[in-house]
Design a protein that fits this description.
By secondary structure, this protein is an alpha+beta fold. The chain has one domain: Peptide deformylase (Peptide Deformylase, Alpha-Beta Complex), CATH 3.90.45.10. 28% of the residues lie in helices and 29% in strands. It has helices at residues 25-40, 126-139, 150-166, and strands spanning 45-47, 57-60, 72-83, 86-92, 95-104, 107-113, 119-125. Strands 1-2-3-6-7 form a 5-stranded antiparallel sheet. A hairpin with a 2-residue loop joins strand 4 (86-92) and strand 5 (95-104). The chain starts with 24 loop residues before the first helix and ends with a helix.
Length: 170
Amino acid sequence: MKRDILKYPDPRLRRKAEPVSSVDEGVRELIRDMFETMYAEKGVGLAATQVGEPVRVVVLDVSPVVEDVEPFALVNPEIVSAEGSEEGEEGCLSVPDYTAPVKRAARVTVRALDEEGQEVEINAEGFLARALQHEIDHLDGILFVDRLSPVKKSIFRRKYAKIARSGVGS
């Protein structure tokens, strides 16, 4: 079932998600809904917090950008190592119509559970590393615009204030 995506500045986007105690049918149903929602909105990643569920679950499908990576879901993902640094353009389904360059680690190792509750470890670089960091940030109540320079953050706030006043995007 497609779900509504919370949009900035909804305060629920700022809540830190709770760990999932067990990967059960309810979690798998949430994952299916999240994939359906992500594809309907033409995204490459989605965190449960973006659909109003404050639990540590993300789904990703970076296959439009990265070859040989199948769509996957992660439960309770955590970054266990990060190295390097690179800047890249980011956007977000919860912050529509806005992109900006964001500095992230170039390589990350993420540990999590898969849809079956089995432990997995992902070593990622480039776009996949960026997408993982972006979605895990959501689980901690952090949006990509929080990582902008003060000047770019100010520009973003002015743009979104104007959108809010005009009612566009509602």
